[in-house]
Amino acid sequence: MEDLKGFLKRKSRRLLPFEEVKEKLGIWFARDLGIQSIPIDSIVGSEGRYRAFTRSFMPLQEDLRDRWKKIDQIRESRQDLPPVELYKVSNAYFVRDGHHRISVARVKGNKYIEARVYEYQCDVPLDKETDLEKLAIQENYYRFLKETGLNRSRPDHNLQMTRLEGYSILMEHIAEVIRSNRIMKQFPHRTETDFYVWVVKYGRKLRQKLIKDAPAYNHPDNDNPADVVEAYAKKYGSIFRKIIGAFRRFFGLVKY
């Protein structure tokens, strides 16, 4: 029934594999957060048992029955069960230990569960809505941030997209703008990616200077990196500017 609902809603009802998330998003262990009360619906994946349960932790394999019933009986007798163990990645959680306890708790209508939480740092956001499709988008987002260096130079970045091919299109567009303006001739010691990162990092300051020198540039649509590149090329593309730029590079005075 869960698979049918997922098919009709075009949304996977399977748990995310934690090892795949680690590999795709380059996450790294940060700290032990101790015992916390965690919303069960924010648990989206598993370490090792992602094929054994659905996204809502319904068992998928017959050999889970006896263990499931035993956990249920312990709960009904009001015996204490140890906290489950979870990995926290952004706002999503993955099961390290305690799949049956989570399954029983959810079936019994519990909204929260006690868990020992181990946090992993991640450069892109995850939440309870993250599925395999969104994970693929976040993988591209992570690669985009890593390639441009924005995860280091702009930790407060917000370039989230909802289309799988969005980041490759963005990179291609910026590269085309850079190439069409032949601006890299002024920076032979740098790459297109270097220049793109520089524009993103200093774009606001550069835009303010361009507005001051050329008021006509002050337009709401001119607040993206591509427009900054074009405006920069027009302002600094004169022969005089190129000679000054060559002089500064020769004597090691250029900042970029």
Question: How would you sum up this structure, described in words?
Answer:
The chain is of the alpha/beta class. It has 2 domains: 2-128, Conserved hypothetical protein from pyrococcus furiosus pfu- 392566-001, ParB domain (Alpha-Beta Complex), CATH 3.90.1530.10; 165-250, no CATH class. Helices cover 46% and strands 16% of the residues. The chain has 10 helices and 6 strands, in the order αβαββαββαβαααααα. It has helices spanning 2-8, 18-25, 65-76, 99-107, 132-148, 150-153, 166-180, 192-213, 225-236, 239-250, and strands spanning 16-17, 28-39, 43-46, 84-89, 92-97, 112-121. The chain has a 6-stranded mixed β-sheet with strand order 1-3-5-4-6-2. Helix 5 (132-148) runs parallel beside helix 7 and helix 8 (192-213) crosses helix 9 (225-236). The mean pLDDT is 78.
CATH topology of the largest domain: Conserved hypothetical protein from pyrococcus furiosus pfu- 392566-001, ParB domain
Q: What's the CATH H-level superfamily name of the largest domain?
A: Conserved hypothetical protein from pyrococcus furiosus pfu- 392566-001, ParB domain
Question: Which CATH first-tier class of the largest domain would you pick?
Answer: Alpha Beta
SS element count, helices: 10
| Separation of the first and last Cα atoms | 58 Å
**Which structural category fits the helices and strands?**
alpha/beta
Provide the number of structural domains: 2
Helical amount = 40-55%
Main beta sheet = 6 strands, mixed
Our estimate of the beta-strand percent is 15-25%
Q: How much is the radius of gyration in Å?
A: 25 Å
* Overall pLDDT score: 78
| Helix-strand string | HEHEEHEEHEHHHHHH
Secondary structure tally: strands: 6
What would CATH call the architecture of the largest domain? Alpha-Beta Complex
Query: Shape from CA axes?
Result: elongated
The parts where pLDDT drops under 50 for at least 5 residues are none
Strand order of the largest sheet: 1-3-5-4-6-2
